[in-house]
Amino acid sequence: MNNYAVIFDMDGVIAHTNPYHAKAFEVFFNKHKIPYSDVEFEHHMYGKHNSYIMSHFFKKPIVGEELLQLENEKEGLFREIYKSEIKSIPNFVAFLEDLKDGGFKTGVATSAPKANMDLVIDGLSIRPKMESLLASENVTKHKPDPEVYLTSAQNLGVDPSRCVIFEDSFSGISAAINANMKVVGVLSSHTKEQLPPCNLYIQDYTEIDASKILALLTK
């Protein structure tokens, strides 16, 4: 172990799930007769927590039992649509293996529910390679608050300054910056211009390896 850590968001970072979330939300909003647009999805869905998304689209605060009920309905739709489509962003699994060979600790920190996280990490057979797994249920404050990343670092026994985060959304990158961590922007859902400044950017994992992460942490 080199006592450095790499922590991954999930949606848009490990797997390109956003198009499937959009499909699930379309079915869900149509059922509830809620209007939506692709532009709204881009600004108010990707990288956001369900409490924010529901409240925005329903045009009223959605909390407590109502949130739980609506979230379970929509996420159930997502898992049904996505379960036969699970695949990683190109070269992710090979990159993860390279990190493990290099002695990095690794974890997942997502705003998604645990059931979604379990579906993806078990679908890709990467659970044994992760020393920390945190989902929506594991935090009280959601991104851009740094709680999920600071808790991940704590779980991994690594100082935040020795962590690199892979993120694709404005709120997620902001959370990493707020945690005082290095951040690699994965350009799966947004352009560089739409995101806060990152230390590096990639389109997919063919463009990065463990040596580049080590160089980022030690420069």
Summarize this structure as a short list of keywords or feature phrases.
219 residues; alpha/beta; six-stranded parallel beta sheet; 45% helix; globular
What proportion of the residues is helical, as a percent range? Answer: 40-55%
Biggest β-sheet: strands ordered side by side in the sheet: 3-2-1-4-5-6
**Low-pLDDT sequence parts:** none
Shape: globular
H/I helix tally: 9
Looking at how many chains there are and whether they match, the oligomeric state comes to single chain
N- to C-terminal distance: 19 Å
Mean pLDDT: 96
The amount of beta strand, in percent, is: 5-15%
What does the largest sheet look like?
Answer: 6 strands, parallel
The structural class is alpha/beta
The radius of gyration over CA amounts to 17 Å
Could you state the order of secondary-structure elements as H and E?
A: EHHHHHEHEHEHEEH
Count every beta strand, where a strand is a DSSP E run of 2 or more residues.
6
Please explain how this structure is put together:
The chain is an alpha/beta fold and 219 residues long. It contains 9 helices and 6 strands; from the N terminus they run E-H-H-H-H-H-E-H-E-H-E-H-E-E-H. Strands 3-2-1-4-5-6 form a 6-stranded parallel sheet, with helices on both faces. Helix 6 links the parallel strand 2 and strand 3 (132-134).
Structure described in brief:
The protein is an alpha/beta fold and 219 residues long. The protein is built from 9 helices and 6 strands. α6 (114-123) links the parallel β2 (105-109) and β3 (132-134).
